[in-house]
Amino acid sequence: MSEMNTKDFLIGSLIGGIVGASAALFLAPKSGKELRSDITEQAQAAKEKTNQFTTTAYEKGNEWATYAKEKSSSIAKVVSDQSNQVVEKVKGATSNLKAEAEEAKASAEDIVGDLAGDVQEAGEEIVETVKNEVDEIQARVEEEKPVG
């Protein structure tokens, strides 16, 4: 079964009521004066009910509009607050990462500097050792040279 629109239902009910009341008045065995009086009374009653329905619909519409406005405002505030919190967390994480990257860079530079110094010292020691060994070999070679 398809969904019935409330507005269409109310309009149909109102029209059906008016038609039914009119038919009852016209089919009743009354004099013209009584019939006109009854029609006038029924028209007034229908007019009052229509005004009541209109007023009620207007009030309910305003209530729902106010409710929707309050809820959307509340939701917008919550979303804004949460967005600000996320932005702050991202900023904090970014600054922490930046600080950690700078610390890592400084540590790497220290290690490279230490290694460079160690490598240079080791290189100098190796050069000195090789030089001494070459001198020793040269001295042995000169000692073993036959004179003459």
UniProtKB/TrEMBL annotation:
InterPro entries: Desiccation-related_membrane (IPR052928), YtxH (IPR024623). Pfam families: YtxH. It comes from the Bacteria. This is YtxH-like protein. It comes from Halalkalibacter krulwichiae.
